[in-house]
Amino acid sequence: MEIMQVIGSLVCTHRVAGLGHMHLRVLRSNKGKLSVAVDPVGASAGNWVFTASGSAARFACPDPNTYTDLTIGGIIDFWAPDG
Amino acid sequence: MEIMQVIGSLVCTHRVAGLGHMHLRVLRSNKGKLSVAVDPVGASAGNWVFTASGSAARFACPDPNTYTDLTIGGIIDFWAPDG
Amino acid sequence: MEIMQVIGSLVCTHRVAGLGHMHLRVLRSNKGKLSVAVDPVGASAGNWVFTASGSAARFACPDPNTYTDLTIGGIIDFWAPDG
Amino acid sequence: MEIMQVIGSLVCTHRVAGLGHMHLRVLRSNKGKLSVAVDPVGASAGNWVFTASGSAARFACPDPNTYTDLTIGGIIDFWAPDG
Amino acid sequence: MEIMQVIGSLVCTHRVAGLGHMHLRVLRSNKGKLSVAVDPVGASAGNWVFTASGSAARFACPDPNTYTDLTIGGIIDFWAPDG
């Protein structure tokens, strides 16, 4: 999974049926790359999240038939260097 | 999903049967990378779109047996920084 | 799908059974990256082709049990900027 | 599979149900890229591990319904140049 | 598929069950990137090989339940620019 930050939402009137009513978030990696993910956890702009890609992205949605290749898996509270 | 811009169409007389009659669009990322996607939503040159890759690309087609690894999922109207 | 150019063929005496008798082509992207693809369409050196990756690569073969992650999907005649 | 080093753990109160109670580790590649993986082998910070991605990541978990795209496959004792 | 060179073997006492007794090889791309692959063809250090990734990596193993995302598909004898 990747670590990314939510920077906004995406509005798309014309889209394929398989995405349902899921919110689409615009994410930015720490290298500045933008991606679009569906959001089943309710993240807000500024949140750091981790994302699941590939077929895991579909299964991570409440409806596994959602046609996504990137899904927000969780909101990061903090991460701790071990030991 | 990725954000890309439609820059043209691709003509291929010899192609595998599994792509049916789907239109093939040439897309460009904001870093200049070119890709080819099938287009079930009817995008035009200049449109900014988001794309689904991997197995999600197949399911996003009207015929899930379309042998694509990249499909246009929607045309972006605009995106809004939240908050 | 990606746009690549055929630059040669690959000879491999020892290979896994699952690739059958498919021809293996060496392809080069416009950034110089080399890849190996199976070729169900009969491309020649110098041809520009588009390729399907991931699970779509397997389904694009006449025998869907071909164990490939990259398959030539078609030979590009030309591409046209729209409009 | 990729070679990466464990540098910490991730705490996420809000996450999708499909990750169960698996530990989430933060990994760093030798190029400095950070990723998040589930850890069924019990790695510690500082360990060098190899990771399985894609659908293999799910199957490498005790519960194959874990919705991960990156799983630690083993802790590297050492690697030996052959011959 | 990618072209890579075998540079060594990997020893991992603690690893997930799903990799069976397959040998793990360390491979290097021509850009210096290191990866780990299972080896059903018996490659030696110095050999140039091509690799299958994703779900094809699993199917290319004698036991399709091997939890790998990278498998050596064949040893390259030579490659010939066509024509």
UniProtKB/TrEMBL annotation, chains A, B, C, D, E:
Instruction: Please provide, in alphabetical order, the Gene Ontology terms of the cellular component aspect for this entry.
Output: carboxysome
Put simply, this protein is called: Carboxysome peptide B
User: Any idea where this protein resides?
Assistant: Carboxysome
UniProt entry keywords in alphabetical sequence: Bacterial microcompartment, Carboxysome
| InterPro entries on file | CsoS4B, EutN_CcmL, EutN_CcmL_sf
The primary site where this protein sits is other
Q: Does the keyword Transmembrane apply?
A: no
